[in-house]
User: Which sequence fits this backbone?
């Protein structure tokens, strides 16, 4: 059973698996690279002319970029949806999907950090926040904390991903007991990054729309709902391109998680809405405006987000519908879009309207903002594609118990 | 003040005499301080400033009225380049009705202390507990 010759060296094998592939794969990579390039061009314009080319203003200082950042931190946090049952509850179906979950976390954190970077007025000065070189404002600044935990989570996710991948490659048991402390830390940091992001918003009494103790729990619930949706779609993609169906039970597990966390999130949302709207003061004013169409397209977004929430809640809670592949796929997409609408720009922008002095303001993202955002999404998808590709090539090889280097070149990922 | 707490890189702080200042060379332009400010008192430089040559005062302060580059925050500095030399802020000198007053809180015989003790005063958004050294007063 055991191959007497040692496995191929890790890094060259990694590169080979990442770069070699059928034409469709290369076309996809080329498309993503083009997306990154055009996003880079748009950012070049912004870097030269300044943030005046965005739709931001003195009244609405954060918009599409920070909205996307908030959403993606949630996606990164939701990777622990699978890590918790795998590591703490010893759920075998969850353990199988650890590598794709970590790949998603890495791509999401990188995208989040990129969105912060493009939002900064002086991005080259980001080193001012690094301990040692710069002067990070610990413990007072929640934004400093957010950068710290995001950096730690990224480093840890990268370590866990490549460590476990290498174990697969060398046909060793992928999760040695010594790894448990690192996995536990990843779980804590995963919840931590999204909680700190929620605190970053909720800690501002100047912004009553966010100043709620329920914001952090709401973030975790919606992140888990959206994250399980994205994970579900990712695993479906892996199954399809791998011509293997290794993740059926994991997907069933994720569907249940989606249904439960979505219901919890909707309950939180209903609680907040009730308190805001019962008396039309303070945060209620902003919310009222939002819901009653006073904020233009933002109101449409929020209503769409809530409608999507309702629809997919029904889809997911009714068991025969949940088990149906097509319906659960659509529900997963609806979860992701709905949470993005309601937690991304749909949460950030209304936080500034009305302004602390009572002024009504508006915000429309410009073409440059949209192009830069799409470029960052392309970069994230590129990272995700490469990581998933090496996962399916190298973890698959060890799953079926053989080192595949003796097989002829044509691979089966067409 | 919430902005000083919010800044992730300690680019803004309260000077000993009470003025909250910004180091334009350290600010990374994240605008979190503007998010935290309940008074809309902090502004961001969205573009490169258009300053005509010959129209810039040569009397500038590092933490005050020197030209601010693109991508950093700024705010009222209470004319730190003037008040540290015993002059009045430019807005107070310009005001024709004497509606503005800048002074020394610690001076028991000063005009500021007299107003705080004898006039009807209030602070804006007192419920935010920011304790600003900024009062409004009225004679009635």
Assistant:
């Amino acid at each position: 059973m055991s191959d007497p010759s040692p496995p191929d060296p890790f890094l060259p094998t990694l590169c080979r698996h990442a770069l070699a592939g059928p034409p469709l794969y290369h076309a996809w990579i080329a498309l993503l690279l083009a997306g990154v390039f055009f996003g880079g061009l748009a950012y070049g314009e912004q870097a030269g002319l300044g943030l005046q080319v965005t739709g931001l203003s003195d009244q609405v200082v954060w918009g599409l970029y920070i909205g996307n950042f908030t959403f993606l931190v949630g996606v990164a946090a939701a990777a622990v949806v699978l890590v918790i049952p795998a590591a703490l509850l010893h759920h075998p179906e969850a353990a199988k999907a650890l590598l794709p979950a970590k790949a998603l976390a890495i791509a999401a954190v990188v995208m989040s950090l990129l969105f912060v970077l493009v939002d900064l007025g002086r991005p080259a000065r980001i080193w001012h926040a690094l301990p040692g070189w710069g002067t990070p404002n610990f413990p007072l600044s929640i934004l400093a904390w957010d950068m710290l935990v995001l950096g730690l989570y990224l480093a840890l996710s990268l370590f866990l991903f490549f460590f476990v991948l290498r174990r697969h490659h060398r046909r060793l048991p992928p999760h040695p007991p010594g790894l448990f402390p690192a996995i536990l830390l990843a779980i804590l940091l995963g919840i931590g990054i999204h909680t700190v992001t929620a605190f970053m918003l909720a800690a501002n009494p100047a912004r009553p729309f966010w100043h709620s103790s329920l914001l952090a729990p709401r973030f975790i619930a919606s992140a888990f709902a959206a994250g399980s949706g994205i994970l579900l779609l990712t695993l479906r993609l892996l199954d399809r391109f791998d011509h293997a169906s290794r993740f059926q039970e994991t997907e069933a597990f994720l569907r249940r998680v989606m249904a439960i966390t979505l219901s919890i999130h909707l309950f939180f949302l209903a609680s907040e809405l009730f308190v805001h709207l019962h008396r039309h003061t303070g945060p209620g004013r902003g919310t009222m405006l939002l819901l009653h169409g006073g904020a233009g397209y933002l109101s449409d977004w929020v209503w769409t987000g809530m409608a999507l929430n309702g629809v997919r809640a029904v889809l997911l809670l009714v068991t025969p519908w949940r088990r149906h592949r097509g319906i659960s796929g659509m529900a997963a997409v609806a979860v992701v879009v709905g949470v993005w609408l309601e937690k991304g720009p749909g949460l950030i922008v209304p936080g500034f309207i009305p302004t602390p002095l009572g002024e009504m303001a508006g915000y429309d993202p410009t073409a440059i903002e949209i192009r830069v955002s799409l470029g960052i999404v392309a970069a994230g998808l590129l990272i995700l594609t490469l990581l998933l590709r090496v996962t399916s090539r190298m973890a698959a090889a060890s799953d079926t118990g053989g080192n595949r280097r003796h097989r002829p070149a044509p691979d089966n990922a067409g | 003040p919430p902005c000083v707490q919010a800044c992730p890189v300690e680019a803004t702080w309260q000077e000993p005499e009470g003025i909250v200042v910004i180091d334009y060379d350290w600010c990374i332009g994240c605008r979190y301080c503007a998010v935290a400010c309940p008074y809309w008192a902090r502004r961001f430089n969205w573009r490169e400033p258009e300053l005509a040559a010959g129209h810039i005062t040569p009397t500038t302060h590092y933490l005050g009225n020197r030209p601010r580059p693109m991508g950093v925050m700024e705010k009222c500095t209470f004319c730190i380049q003037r008040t540290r030399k015993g002059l009045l802020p430019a807005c107070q000198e310009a005001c024709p009705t004497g509606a503005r007053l800048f002074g020394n809180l610690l001076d028991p015989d000063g005009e500021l202390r007299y107003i705080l003790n004898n006039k009807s005063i209030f602070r804006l958004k007192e419920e935010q507990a920011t304790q600003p050294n900024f009062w409004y007063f009225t004679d009635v």
Remarks:
- Chain A has a mean pLDDT of 82.
- The CA atoms of residues 173 and 228 of chain A lie 26 Å apart.
